[in-house]
Design goal:
By secondary structure, the chain is α/β, with parallel strands linked by helices. It is built from 11 helices and 17 strands. The termini are far apart.
């Protein structure tokens, strides 16, 4: 077997051979993440899902929580448009726990954006023939199975082997996605070789990440942070890179925590920022938005000062009644701070629905 050529999607992520259409879209920031439910029966010790979502039957389109009704669906479609989405990744929890809902949302997305809108789904369930048919009929493009670590060295004959074999009979692309456990390298290699015998097109290997919800379970098993990361587990990325040398024909993709932040998330922020930025705001190279703000209890009076004393037009600023502030260009905020006693700041926000503030500079 010829030595495979190892390539990069950006940052420290590496792959060889075929990878998912969804992964390429994600690298561009053009894949919406649809968190369809927080319900799950597997309780994986490495699960990084936040307390806010874990175990709750809630739905999120990227960072936007939505309701399971017409308004929520409209918000989801808007979120997809705001990032110029070419596809959607459905996750949880376990989407199979709400299978009918999952199928319904797949149909909605396909109807709205067309057959080329690539949809993949991630589940730890060894889906059966009936579940596969429902997802296939709905239009699902790719089904990624998370094979539990205890199955890796005895995959042949397992229900996960049977499930992936059944998926191959449908029009859905079968795949596997698992976390990289650095102390389970031998078992992971066995899994890859077993999957290769099934002629699966690719496997995704995710760097193991520490979060507030899994840190205790990971520490109990001896996992620690690697020195150059705030979330990546020591030895995980390196173990994944070693898997790229496995003598298999299938594609292998190693997705790292740094790549998810520096490439996937960054590019998604850039996509969204470009669609929501106002003329007086600035988009940074990381996709965040910089604006000036004036915090005031007298919004009307302050607006008059801006117009009468500084010549601003209504298009040059915006009034946020809920936050009791006026938003405007950062340079203008600096000018106003120098010439008045108004309370001014320059702030930097994520261009997400929750508009997370990452920096605030008083003027």
């Amino acid at each position: 077997m010829p030595k495979p050529k190892i390539k990069s999607l950006g940052a420290d992520a590496r792959y060889r051979g075929r990878i998912s259409v969804g992964c390429r879209q994600c690298a561009k920031g053009r894949k919406m993440v649809l968190f369809i439910t927080g319900r799950c029966d597997f309780h994986c010790f490495y699960c990084p899902i936040s307390e806010r979502r874990r175990g709750t039957d809630t739905i999120w389109a990227n960072e936007r929580q939505i309701t399971d009704d017409a308004d929520g669906i409209s918000a989801m479609l808007e979120e997809a448009r705001l990032i110029n989405a070419q596809g959607t990744g459905i996750t949880g929890g376990d989407p199979i726990k709400v299978l009918d809902r999952t199928a319904r949302y797949i149909k909605i997305l396909k109807k709205e954006f067309g057959k080329k809108h690539h949809i993949h789904l991630y589940t730890a369930t060894a889906v059966n023939e009936g579940q596969i048919k429902l997802l296939d009929d709905a239009g699902l493009d790719e089904l990624r199975i998370q094979v539990p670590p205890e199955i890796w060295d005895k995959f042949d004959g397992s229900r996960y082997h049977d499930s992936l074999t059944e998926i191959q009979k449908s029009s859905i692309t079968p795949a596997v996605e698992v976390p990289i456990l650095p102390d389970k390298k031998a078992d992971m290699k066995k899994l890859i070789l077993a999957l290769d015998k099934l002629h699966l097109p690719f496997i995704n290997l995710n760097e193991l990440e520490i979060s507030e919800t899994n840190i205790r379970a990971l520490e109990e098993r001896g996992y620690t942070l690697r020195e150059d990361s705030i979330v990546g587990v020591a030895g995980s990325m390196q173990a994944g890179l070693e898997m790229l040398k496995t003598p298999a024909k299938m594609g292998i993709n190693v997705c790292t925590s740094r790549y998810k932040d520096a490439v996937q998330l960054r590019n998604r922020l850039i996509q969204r920022a470009g669609n929501i930025v106002r003329d007086f705001e600035i988009i940074t190279e990381d996709g965040t938005i910089i604006r000036g703000i004036i915090e005031t209890g007298d919004l009307g009076g302050t607006a008059k000062i801006l117009e009468n004393d500084f010549g601003l037009k209504k298009r040059d600023y915006a009034v946020d009644i809920e936050k009791e502030r006026i938003e405007l260009g950062p340079e203008m905020a600096e000018k106003i701070a120098q010439k008045t006693h108004l309370v001014c700041f320059i702030i930097e926000n994520y261009p997400t629905c929750d508009a997370l503030e990452v920096e605030r500079i008083p003027l």
